[in-house]
Design brief:
Chain lengths: 441, 323
């Protein structure tokens, strides 16, 4: 495949101009002996992540490898994190050994050769231990750029009490049913069946993902493809446009005061969200405990079982790390060691990509009182199997998100035509890519 | 400051000064002066001049994600001058300046005069209360206003609904600039008021006595004595406001989390430069935008000052004609 040769040659090309990054060791496989030596040599590692209390899992690592001393630093969540990371990489010093990276941002760090290809360190062997689509996110070609930490396969959280008040006993199975249910719910209870975050690109891209839209692609080198205004994408956009224009879906900005109030007050009878949503909601709408249920996303074709993903992240090793082996072992341990992975899932409530956890009764058999005793983890574990495995990103997602706010967000707020706005968005994304020197296909 | 023409005429043309040799003590003193100034100049050079020159240097390049840095001459500036987003943001802050600053400074002046007239009871407490918003960090202020503006749960919206006015939308794309003017006015009226008030306190009391003997009332006093006397202070607040409005950053960047659809990435020039540098990763273009913004501020400040000075000169000539 062209993708593969592209990724290999960029590695070779860039070693010349970035000293220290991607040195000779990147080609040859690391032996067990090398690993043993590295893990018994006193070493200091820095780990940038915003996962709360990850020190607990790091402690497990340090207990196993007493010679390795890990410093965990939280330099910000999301954008500020990447800004500091980029500055440190640019400056050539101060970058951590291991860093948290959300899946969609991996290409932007592959682009400038900042990440270490983990294949020679044995990461290839781990591929079967993670759900396929999550592994494809960290390893879109031969190289492995990170170890998956958590994922957000999408489902439908809904207020059973409000829906049954409107005479709906089963969660809508198709999008068509969902639209009909939206009308019934709005007419009989006054609630919106759910809210579409006006500026939430992650949610919309998750819907695209489910609908089989492939808006982005990147060959790991200089070629991107942007296709946010394809017919499939416009089908999704038109669906939401119609619901919004009939005032059946609200468009409050999510994760803002107005929206929190809406979830707690029953203004929205549901939330189409990701696997991290159930726990989040529990903290946000405490007063409505027991009234919520979880279901898969409505489907485009009756009988299908397809979902998309929204969110989640991975841990990557920076090519500039001086202790590559130890750094890789840390990234691997945190997200692969059974105890560590289990604790991430049950204490930090990160939804696991690890097959071992997804099959562990201690995780999937948990009954959640907030969801009326439903086994929510089991449901999302099943959904996770249905996520399309072939979804890619472009190496400039910051720009993609910020222009989404500008082009799509304003249109959603004004109840305009989202499908038409996709054309504007497409033009801007292509123009940016061309200005930045990419070849756009 | 201004010499009357008569005086300059009387003075004989002074011969060119002979070159004087500085005495050793003088030279020593001068050296000491330079030594005392040295720390300032070191900091000034390293922290201001060097970064400024560097930013100017950066603005002459184009950095691409593919291909790296290329010397581009003035291409970034040409792009900025034809960039509708940048020009739009300048227009927006220009509008902000024209509408918000007169309201804010008028209010500040009124409050300062009211406090100074000592008519208001408990003026110390009032002074503090008006000044307090300035002490509230912009972050907290914006979050607080975000709550007040909230359509469903915000008190303003609730009251408006209760009275039957419907829900006002303070955070739509059309109204957010006005909402921001309100926040900024609330924040800075006290600050400007304090500057004017301090200037008012330094007016010699004799002037008031003289005016009272002439039979001037409070309004006449304010209009003919107080306001002209604190003109330099008012000019200062105007210049501060020019800089403040054109550099608006904290408010849009914070309101963006509450009303992301209304606050576009190029809402104000400063916010645009920030987004260019850190979201679009177009650092060089951001540097060019920042330079142009600095230029615009300098030009506007200059004209504002010029207008102020001209107005100051007018009464003087009138007086000259009377006498």
């Amino acid at each position: 495949m062209a993708l593969v040769t592209g990724a290999v040659s960029i590695g070779v090309l860039l070693t010349g101009c970035t000293p220290g990054a991607g040195d000779d060791s990147s080609q040859e496989a690391v032996t067990q002996e090398d690993i043993d030596t590295a893990m018994t040599t006193p070493t200091k590692l820095t780990f940038w992540t915003w996962v709360p209390d990850i020190e607990n899992e790091v402690k497990l690592f340090e207990e196993k490898y007493p010679d390795i001393d890990v410093t965990v630093e939280n330099v910000g969540q999301g954008l500020p994190h990447y800004q500091k990371l980029r500055s440190a990489i640019e400056a050539g010093e101060g970058a951590p050994d291991v860093t948290q990276v959300e899946y969609q941002y991996i290409p932007s760090f592959v682009l400038n050769d900042s990440l270490l290809d983990l294949t020679p360190y044995g990461a290839d062997d781990l591929s079967g231990d993670y759900v396929d689509w999550a592994w494809n996110q960290v390893s879109p070609d031969d190289a492995v750029w990170a170890i998956p930490q958590d994922v957000g396969p999408m489902g439908n959280l809904y207020r059973q009490d409000i829906l049954s008040q409107a005479g709906i006993t089963e969660p809508p199975a198709t999008w068509e049913e969902y639209a009909a249910a939206a009308k019934t719910v709005k007419d009989s209870t006054g609630s919106y069946i759910s809210n579409l975050g006006a500026t939430q690109a992650g949610q919309m891209i998750g819907f695209f993902w489910q609908a089989g839209v492939k808006p982005f692609a990147y060959d790991g080198k200089e070629t991107v493809s942007v296709n946010v205004n394809s017919d499939e994408a416009k089908k999704v956009a038109t669906y939401w446009t119609e619901l919004i224009q009939q005032d059946l879906i609200s468009t409050d900005v999510d994760f803002a005061d107005q929206w929190y109030q809406g979830l707690a007050s029953g203004k929205y009878a549901g939330w189409l969200t990701a696997a991290w949503g159930p726990i989040f909601l529990q903290g946000t709408a405490e007063g409505t405990a027991g009234a919520w249920r979880a279901a898969p996303l409505p489907q485009w074709t009756a009988g299908d079982e397809v979902s998309g993903n929204w969110g989640g992240s991975s841990d990557a090793v920076l090519a500039s790390s001086e202790n590559k082996i130890a750094a890789y072992e840390l990234a691997k341990f945190i997200n692969h060691d059974e105890e560590s992975a289990m604790r991430l899932a049950t204490e930090q409530f990160l939804f696991p990509p690890q097959v071992s956890v997804l099959e562990d009764p201690a995780f999937v058999d948990q009954e959640s009182a907030f969801y009326g005793g439903q086994k929510v983890n089991q449901l999302f574990a099943d959904i996770s199997q249905t996520v399309d495995t072939d979804f890619q990103w472009v190496p400039y997602m910051d720009y993609v998100y910020s222009t989404y706010e500008d082009t799509i967000g304003t249109v959603i707020t004004d109840k305009g035509d989202i499908a038409a706005a996709l054309d504007t968005w497409q033009d801007q994304l292509v123009k940016y890519a061309e200005d930045q020197g990419f070849t756009v296909e | 400051m201004t010499h009357s023409p008569a005086l300059t005429h009387e003075r004989p043309a002074s011969p060119p000064l002979p070159k004087r040799r500085t005495s050793p003590t003088k030279r020593k003193q001068r050296l000491a002066a330079y030594l005392f100034l040295l720390p300032f100049f070191v900091v000034f050079l390293t922290m201001l001049v060097v970064p400024l020159v560097y930013a100017g240097y950066l603005s002459l390049f184009q950095s691409k994600l593919i291909g790296g840095d290329v010397f581009a001459g003035l291409a970034n500036y040409v792009r900025a001058l034809t960039d509708s987003a940048f020009l739009g943001s300048l227009g927006r802050v220009g509008l902000f300046f024209i509408i918000q600053v007169p309201i804010m400074l008028g209010l500040a002046l009124f409050l300062a005069l009211a406090l100074d007239s000592a008519r208001a009871r408990g003026s110390k407490a009032v002074r503090l209360l008006i000044f307090m918003p300035y002490a509230v960090p912009a972050v907290v202020a914006t979050l607080m206003w975000g709550y007040l503006y909230g359509p469903d749960f915000g008190p303003i919206g609730q009251v408006a609904r209760a009275v039957g006015l419907g829900t006002p939308d303070f955070l739509s794309a059309q109204s957010v600039l006005g909402s921001m003017m309100n926040i900024v006015t609330w924040e800075f009226v006290g600050y400007n008021m304090i500057i004017m008030y301090a200037a008012l306190r330094s007016i010699p009391a004799e002037l008031y006595e003289a005016a009272e003997i002439d039979g001037a009332g409070q309004f006449r006093l304010a209009w003919s004595i107080k306001i002209p006397a604190i003109r330099p202070a008012i000019m200062l607040t105007v210049i501060f406001s020019v800089i403040g409005s054109f550099q608006l950053f904290a408010e849009p960047s914070l309101l963006n989390s509450i009303a992301p659809a209304a606050i576009t990435p190029a809402f104000t020039p400063n916010y645009y430069a920030y987004n260019l540098a850190f979201i679009n990763q177009e650092l060089n273009y951001a540097a060019a935008i920042a330079f142009l913004l600095g230029l615009v501020i300098a030009v506007v400040s200059y004209f504002v000052q010029l207008a102020g000075e001209r107005r100051e000169r007018v009464p003087l000539t009138e007086k000259g004609a009377e006498s």
